[in-house]
Write a structure and sequence with these properties.
Helix content: 55-70%
Largest sheet: 5 strands, mixed
Strand order of the largest sheet: 6-8-9-11-10
């Protein structure tokens, strides 16, 4: 039974069953139609012969060849249905009978054997059986070829998926077919490529985090030797603050994946809220408000998004840094070298770090900002101005302004 648990034999068997059922259905329909046609022809021929015998017997009491009067073998159902006014036919399974009553002169009848018709139908049925057997055999062969090709492709997909489960993400199926199996193969190849890229980014991320942590830790170790001096205490405070910021970023990165959990959205005037948050954060930037719309947001997350965007602009961009509010949009722009092309095209990637003018380090700030903006129903996009400088734009959902009391 294990043989039929495989998809190949099951598909071949299914095709054979379908072929046999199709032949069987067609055979029954054709057989019944042919049988009815032959019986109708036999009845018509028998009645025609009886009609010729009736004409002669009525005129001269003579019998033409094949006709009989008061035949003792005449079937009882036919006798019971006799009439002087019309001829009656009856088929008893072996012969076709036709008769007409002439009253005192007797019953004139004629019969014809159905042996030839039955032989023809038997030959026809044997041909149908032979056609069914041939169709089943051909279906099995064709099904085997189709199933064999399909199972070989599926086996290749299984091997590649198994290798990926074991950690080997370099193998590919490379199936060019444009069918469901080909779609599955391409999905597996794409999954392996994406997983490989993700693992590589995670390895680089771990290395970058280790590098970032090593610097403040080393500085702290050195500063412990100088704690009695003002400079040592200053270095210790700076590095502890840097280390705390890095740890906070790491924690916020993983929380952002489930950012919808404890969010409390409220309707606020965007320009005024940004002004208050900038005063609280203490950033020295230019604020330009024009068209202060009411939007849906959460102050804490908006504060973090604003802080991250300004910090990124200060670290990698150029002064002056401007925060512009236009209706329901907030834009943070600087006059530096701009964002890398890959960041503008695909957005920040938290595990992607490159030694470019922007994006050096662990690459968490902008990723966190994107996740937090998305959790509030806002969208954060990145672009470079034609005349230079980076542009980070947050577009919020509009909210109805509260009615005056």
């Amino acid at each position: 039974m294990r043989f039929f648990s495989r998809i190949g034999p099951r598909l071949a068997l299914l095709l054979a069953v379908v072929a046999v059922l199709s032949i069987a259905t067609t055979s029954v329909i054709v057989y019944r139609s042919t049988e009815d046609d032959l019986r109708a022809r036999l009845r018509q021929t028998t009645l025609t012969r009886l009609g010729a015998g009736v004409d002669v017997f009525s005129a001269s009491d003579r019998l033409v060849a094949g006709t009989r009067v008061d035949d003792q073998d005449l079937p009882k159902p036919l006798r019971d249905a006799l009439s002087r006014r019309r001829s009656v036919s009856y088929f008893d399974g072996e012969r076709m009978w036709a008769a007409r009553s002439f009253g005192p002169r007797g019953v004139l009848s004629v019969s014809q054997s159905a042996v030839a018709d039955r032989q023809f139908l038997s030959d026809l049925m044997r041909q149908f059986v032979l056609a069914g057997a041939v169709a089943a055999l051909v279906s099995i062969l064709i099904g085997g070829l189709i199933a064999g090709a399909t199972t070989r492709r599926l086996a290749r997909i299984t091997r590649v998926a198994g290798a990926a489960a074991g950690g080997d993400l370099e193998q590919r199926v490379n199936d060019p077919a444009r069918d469901q199996v080909g779609d599955l193969a391409r999905a597996v190849d794409s999954m392996n490529a994406d997983l490989g890229a993700l693992l590589e980014r995670e390895r680089r991320f771990a290395a970058d985090v280790a590098h970032e942590l090593r610097t403040p830790v080393a500085a702290l170790v050195s500063a412990t030797e100088l704690l009695d001096e003002p400079r040592g205490r200053e270095i210790a405070r700076e590095q502890v603050a840097r280390l705390r910021r890095l740890v906070d970023d790491l924690i916020e990165t993983f929380r952002a994946a489930d950012a919808q959990g404890d969010i409390e959205i409220e309707s606020v005037p965007l320009g005024e809220t940004v002004r208050l948050l900038l005063d609280h954060l203490g950033h020295d930037v230019v604020l330009d408000v024009e068209g202060d719309a009411w939007v849906d947001t959460e102050r804490r997350r908006l504060s973090r998004v604003l802080d991250n965007l300004i910090s990124n602009a200060r670290k990698y961009g150029g002064d002056p840094i401007t925060v512009a509010v236009r209706d329901n949009r907030m834009e943070v722009r600087d006059e530096g070298a701009g964002f890398p092309d890959w960041l503008v095209d695909r957005g920040p990637q938290r595990f992607r770090t490159e030694s470019t003018s922007r994006g050096d380090g662990v690459g968490l700030g902008l990723s966190i900002a994107v996740a937090l903006a998305d959790s509030m129903g806002a969208t954060l996009s990145f672009a470079n101005a034609a005349d230079g400088g980076a542009r980070a734009v947050v577009e919020f959902r509009r909210a109805a302004a509260p009615e005056a009391a």
